[in-house]
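Morning F.,

Quick status update on the modeling queue. The single chain you submitted on Monday has been processed. Sequence for confirmation:
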Amino acid sequence: MTRVHLHPGGRLDLATGALTPRLLSRSRGGARVALVGARALLLAGDDVTLDVVVGAGCALELVEVAGTVAFDQRGGPAASWCVRVRLGEGARLTWHGEPFVVADGATVERRTDVDLARGAVALLRETLVLGRTGERGGALLARTRAHLDGRPLLAEDLDLRDAALRASPAVLGAARCLDTVALLGARPAGGEPDALHLAGPGALDRRLTLDAHSSDLDAVWRRRLALLEPAGAPADRGAAIAAG
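Structure tokens below.
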């Protein structure tokens, strides 16, 4: 299991699993950490778990140096990718994920659990791509759960295991890339009607495209990022973030 724990006061606890966390920079109460593949990923039967903890009042930025490809498993067991995030009171997490590609013949179960204490905010970018160039892509089941101060904030299951079903206009249609920016624990300033606003403080911005490069969510990411303080800044919401 890969572990990235940022404790109050700035102490950092890193452990290598399928991914190797490497410290890029650190400031008082904040850190920037890169995630580097420690081996080939994802192969049949791989079970990848990433445990992220950000202590109260701290700010952590995670950086992926490359995308991830789930390779043809040639009839082998499914691979799993599990991320567990826990944010203390007033903590911040920003994580701009690189494309997660599910190649032909791959079967992947992906799970993301985010637990936010009061005043915590997470900003996450997730880009799911079905297939490499010229491929339709393998089977993917992606589940996301988020809780804020012990109460449900987001529960979403995305079942893309049936290639015929996901080609329906009600699911992906001709698209093979699902790009999402998730803001959890705060509302975008000014409403932003194009976003999917959660019942609690949070919003999803999502695009369906033919490939990852066609998405226009980079501008959305920059706007969302501008709402958050840089790593190491005091953890308060500031005027630009509307508390739920």
